[in-house]
Amino acid sequence: MSQASSEQYRVYTVWDVPTRWFHWINALAVLGLIGIGVMLLNDDALGLSASGKIKLKQIHVTLGYVMAVNLIWRVVWAFLGNRYARWRAILPYGPGYWGALRSYVAAFLSGEPQQYVGHNPAGRIAIVLILLLLVVQTATGLILAGTDLFWPPFGGWFADRVAAPGIDPASVTPLASDTMDQVAYKAMRAFRSPIVTLHLYAFYTLALVILTHLAAVIVTEIREGGSITSAMFTGRKILNRPPRDL
Ligand code: HEM
Question: What is the side-by-side order of every strand in the sheet holding 236-239?
């Protein structure tokens, strides 16, 4: 649906309410996760005590749950939302996709950028990369939350395996090594080691992709217009040329 706002400019309804809520909840949660993740990486420099580090992990994982539920909701919404929120408008493939990408890049380089109501063809690649990296962070993070804090959904399973003989798995806690069987604990640490590495490298990659995403939004805003940043608040884009995806 669209309506004329002046001779040249037209207003286009694009992002529905759930998509906008997802975007800003996700942005804030990821920002918080990155901030606390960086603190965890610098625990020694910050002089964190063992219990201080556990507290930070608890905050990190609580934010991680928010991000995970929000992400699951977005995956479902991509089947239910308006046409710009759906997989067909997000995934970088489909009839005409590669031609549209080439034409978008060529027009961009020539200084006459094309306008889109939804994601432009290059933006789709960034969105899918970000979503994939968030899925990796969620999957690895939930396993680490199980091995580190014995928190759901996998914490009970790990506590069962490391509880010392005669100890109730429910009473196994991160710093109480006397509640754990040391051989089983070492095996659990060996299991989680490559998962920490994956979580860390996905973090570095995500940080890079997010910076690219922010730079691309700024460049698009300057060169193409469309008020794309405010569109994530209002749901509406203002374009002065016929969009390619109407
Ligand atoms: C955008 C999402 C996320 C980012 C950028 C992120 C980033 C990080 C970083 C940088 C670390 C420090 C790694 C290290 O100490 O070696 C970390 C640790 C951790 N993260 Fe995340 N994380 C994210 C999502 C999650 C989620 C969804 C969960 C769980 C629900 C989670 C659970 C954990 C846990 C338990 C640790 C501690 C690992 C350890 O003991 O070293 N993370 N995260």
Answer: 2-4, 10-13, 236-239
